[in-house]
Design goal:
The protein has 6 helices and no strands. It has 148 residues and is an all-alpha fold. α3 runs parallel beside α5 and α4 runs antiparallel to α5. The protein starts with 8 loop residues before the first helix and ends with a helix.
Length: 148
Amino acid sequence: MAYHYIGSMAWSRETGGRLSFRDRLTLVRHVLAPSMTGMMRTWLRLDHSAPVTLAMIPQPDTAAVRSAYAELQGCASETIINHSLRTYYWGAALGRLSGVDFDPEFLMTGCLLHDLGMTEVHHGKHAGCHCFAVDGALAAQDWAARFG
């Protein structure tokens, strides 16, 4: 069996979204540990990066963003909508702090669609899927096909 990166569509098709023990260890090593290190540096005030303000974060207003927002509004609670918007602002702020170039439209669209699998409309819609994140990815893929 070939190993596919956790969260990739190939991994999702192969596992249905179920994390194996190996996958869990990989997530801890590659995601959780670095995230915790960064948070600790911030809490201990060891990170002297210039602050990022809301005015520094691009506000994309494109057809794709408006369509993704409409898709989310059509099925999600206010809590999920607000979470999705915060995800964009956090991601954009972290990108600015890290000096990572990103496409604001692409990031915003992805953030708006990333938790569609948590909505009643999309959760459990895909046969063999055992993970809301995979349900969301497949729903976003369906949206992208409709959007063109």
